[in-house]
Design a protein that fits this description.
Blueprint (H helix, E strand, L loop, with lengths): L1 E4 L30 E17 L18 E6 L2 E3 L2 E3 L5 E9 L5 E7 L10 E3 L6 E8 L5 E6 L5 E16 L5 H9 L11 E4 L5 E2 L7 E5 L3 E5 L3 E6 L7 E11 L6 E8 L6 E7 L5 E7 L12 E2 L1 E6 L4 E10 L2
Antiparallel strand pairs: 1-22, 2-11, 3-10, 4-5, 6-9, 6-11, 7-8, 7-10, 12-23, 13-16, 14-15, 15-23, 16-22, 17-20, 17-23, 18-19, 18-21
Length: 330
């Protein structure tokens, strides 16, 4: 069995929000840090009501009575609660919090349920004041809850979730030209999902001339077996211009009597003379084997001067199921 390579030429606008958290005065903020690691990313959602302490028919959640003076009330905000569904891996929530029906001057503090109440206010009002809203961002507790503290008097509280924050691993470091080139050289090939490898299966190969008495079969598992004599197959391949070929491999079956071999040729346009790029022979072992060669005579791909294709030749009784080209991306 042999294989040859023939050469052929020819906003999303990401919106991020930065907001102060009421947890002990901590703050999520944008910076020019050159470090790498988790950073909070804001995800806006269609506003949904997670809590309304007013009685039916407008109430939402388990409570239908106002918060009293010096009372802390805790609710779950992650998962499905009220009319909301917030991912359980969110680290903070952004809410529009509104107080209605206040009986006295007071303030409201919103904070994570597992944190000490901070000396801070999220909303302020006086007795008899009309509905008073404010934007509030708060971290959540380890079990996904947020607490609401009312200082004095009684007041109904409405909380609408408008977005949430999730941790995202940012890499804010600056890279040198050498580091960038090294990353590009090892990037993943988008066709196969494998770093620097093009794999060509039997379905891509077409047989050449088929002499009388020679036939082939395509197995459902994805292999081609030849009977009656040797037969060659060819498949066009597309390699990135400027890529450096590092190895040519052929996977198939060797029955010792007829060993596998692999060659890779580069045919320049306007000429029938092949440039041998790689060749190898199997060890003669019985069974499924991989024939590989890493001695590449002309390794740099030049799509402006050559056309590339894989050519696999198999002896009778042998089969192949995969031909692969390893390369370093340009």
């Amino acid at each position: 069995m042999s294989i040859a390579l023939t050469l052929r030429s020819r906003s999303t606008v990401v919106a991020t929000a930065v907001a102060a958290s009421v947890l002990c005065g901590s703050m999520m903020s944008a910076s020019a840090s050159v470090s790498t690691g988790d950073r909070s990313v804001y995800v806006p959602i269609t506003p949904c009501r997670v809590m309304d302490t007013r009685p039916a028919p407008v109430g939402v959640g388990a409570r239908s009575t106002p918060l009293t003076g010096n009372e802390t009330y805790t609710i779950a905000v992650l998962g499905s609660n009220g009319q909301c569904s917030v991912p359980v891996d969110a680290s903070a929530v952004a809410m529009n919090v509104t107080v209605v029906n206040p009986t006295g001057a007071s303030f409201l503090t919103v904070f994570p349920a597992d944190a000490a109440q901070p000396l801070a206010s999220s909303l302020n009002w006086v007795a008899g004041q009309g509905a008073t809203p404010n934007a509030v961002v708060s971290d959540v507790s380890a079990d996904g809850k947020v607490s609401f503290f009312n200082n004095s008097g009684s007041v109904d509280v409405i909380a609408d979730v408008v977005g949430y924050f999730v941790d995202h691993n940012h890499d804010d470091r600056y890279y040198t030209k050498t580091e960038i080139e090294a990353k590009l050289a090892t990037k993943v090939d988008k066709t196969t999902g494998q770093p620097g490898t093009i794999a060509v299966g039997p379905a891509a190969f077409a047989p050449g001339s088929n002499p009388a008495g020679i036939s082939y079969t395509v197995d459902p598992t994805g292999s081609i077996t030849v009977s009656g004599g040797p037969l060659c197959f060819q498949a066009a391949v597309s390699l990135p211009n400027g890529a450096t070929v590092t190895a040519l491999r052929l996977d198939g079956f060797d029955n010792v009597a007829a060993n596998l071999s692999v060659t890779m040729n580069a045919d320049p346009f306007g000429s029938t003379v092949a440039i041998v790029m790689a060749s190898a022979a199997s060890s003669g072992a019985t069974g499924v084997v991989t024939v590989a060669d890493v001695t590449i005579t002309a390794p740099v791909v030049d799509n402006t001067a050559r056309a590339y294709s894989l050519r696999v030749c198999t002896d009778a009784g042998l089969f192949f199921y995969d031909a692969r080209i390893d390369y370093i991306a340009p």
